[in-house]
Each structure stands twice: as C-alpha cells, then as structure tokens.
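This part of the workshop introduces the protein records we will be handling. The structure tokens are whole numbers drawn from a learned vocabulary of backbone shapes. The record below serves as our worked example for the rest of this section.

===
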Amino acid sequence: MTLTAGDPAPDVSAPNQDGETVAPAFDDPTVVYFYPRDDTPGCTVEANQFEQEHESYRDAGVTVYGVSTDGVDSHRAFADQEDLDFDLLADPDGEVADAFGVDTSSGAAARTTFVISDSEIQRVYTGVDPDGHARTVLGDALDADLASLDD
C-alpha cells in the first residue's frame, strides 16, 4: 500500500548514478519521484522538467531524487545524456519502491511522487502526467510552506 500524507518517511538507501550510496535523512524538504524507465519518452520529459526547475528547488532548500528499477549504469548514461544535476537512485530489486509502497508488479516503478519534510510524507501524487509535474510539485511544496524561495 502506498504511503500517504502523515506517514513517516521510510529509512532507505540506494546507489546513485555515480555508484555512491545515498541515504536521505528526509529532515529537510525532499521530493522523491518514482518513474518507470530511463531514456523513455515520458521519463525523459519528467527528468528534463525536474532539471529545468532544479535551481528553483535548490534555492528553496528542496532536494530532488529520481528513483527507478534501472541499475547504476543505466542511470549514469541517462543522467549524462540529459545533463541531470540531481541524484537518480538505482532500485533494481525494488526495495526503495517497496519501502514507499510503490507498485512494481509490471517490472517497473509506477509513476508516483512524494513530498517529504520533517521525516514525514507531506504529499503524494499517483498516476502522474510527467509533463508539468515538476513545476506543480514545486508550487505545491512552496504553498505548503515546506520551503520558501528567497527573492
């Protein structure tokens, strides 16, 4: 069952596209978005739009992680090809997805996004349309006072 707002954020760790183990604390505002596959049309749109908004996320103090069941090598190639500056976490065994309750029964993670702050799930987006999602999530995070943009 997918985690919902108010649930505690799970303790997870996974290698990023550089093979470095990342274990987010989730104390500070964080976005974790699950996507099906590297280098596919919808996933590329979503990743590129998170990258386009990345400076705004960073300025707002929000960390972004993309997660899929692809491996480190696939993530590295995808991040290099799309010039992504945020971590893509490799979850080939679906352990991170399972911790968040994200469906992987099709062999890939269902497109689901979590906004986390103070180690608690604040918002959950399921059945995500990748086009425009990064901006929506940023706006909702700011509206929820999870972070504030410095003018």
Summary: The longest strand covers residues 120-126. The domain at 14-143 is CATH 3.40.30.10 (Glutaredoxin). The beta strands are 14-15, 21-22, 30-34, 63-68, 87-90, 112-117, 120-126. The mean pLDDT is 93.
